[in-house]
Design brief:
2 domains; transmembrane; mainly alpha; 190 residues; 7% strand; 9 helices
């Protein structure tokens, strides 16, 4: 090995190490001396404010009268543990109305109508006995995530937060409302 060019590689190495150390020290001086107790108090205040907002929303929701249209679509409600489960009574499927709203032929209980669900995800749901829009509408978001997780890593990226709501609109034949919602939002894939 030729040591005559040692300066060509040692000086840049030393300069890099010195710059790294100085960058670390400057970073610690500029932002590393944060008051963690002050941060904790700030987050506690923000959390308390958000909790108060949530409580106010929940009290307004409980005080709001139930719409007549929602009572017609719900067959019954019952409590399972801490969660209220609502049974959806689907209306008869109107293929013409669905096709008019979506501009394509829609098959009854085709889960791929829900934004974010493709054929492979629909197959996963079928394997878990969730085969209709009404079944999906009655499924919790947590259960939907469990179904996705059962398919492996490639399905874990999907976010099913809106899938039961979209499925409920489909089960109730609210095609225009579903299509409008899907056009305005891109939450089915997030």
């Amino acid at each position: 090995m030729d040591f005559s060019n040692i300066a060509c590689w040692i000086w840049p190495l030393i300069a890099g190490i010195i710059c790294g150390i100085l960058g670390y020290l400057l970073g610690r001086l500029a932002g590393g001396s944060s008051n963690s107790e002050g941060d904790i108090e700030l987050w506690k205040r923000k959390n308390a404010s958000l909790q108060a907002d949530l409580d106010a929303c929940n009290s307004k929701l409980k005080a709001a009268p139930v719409a007549a249209s929602s009572s017609a679509s719900m067959a019954s409600s019952f409590t399972a543990g801490n969660k209220t489960v609502t049974r959806i009574v689907p209306i008869s499927f109107d293929a013409a109305a669905a096709a008019a709203a979506f501009g394509k032929k829609i098959k009854q209980d085709d889960l791929t109508v829900v934004e974010g669900i493709g054929p492979k995800i629909a197959e996963l749901f079928h394997n878990h006995d969730i085969k209709t829009w009404a079944n999906l509408a009655e499924t919790s978001v947590e259960k939907c995530q469990e179904v996705l997780n059962s398919g492996g890593k490639r399905f874990e990226i999907h976010r099913p937060a809106t899938w039961p709501m979209q499925a409920e609109l489909a089960a109730l034949g609210k095609w225009d409302q579903l299509k409008r919602w899907q056009d305005e939002h891109d939450y089915g894939k997030e």
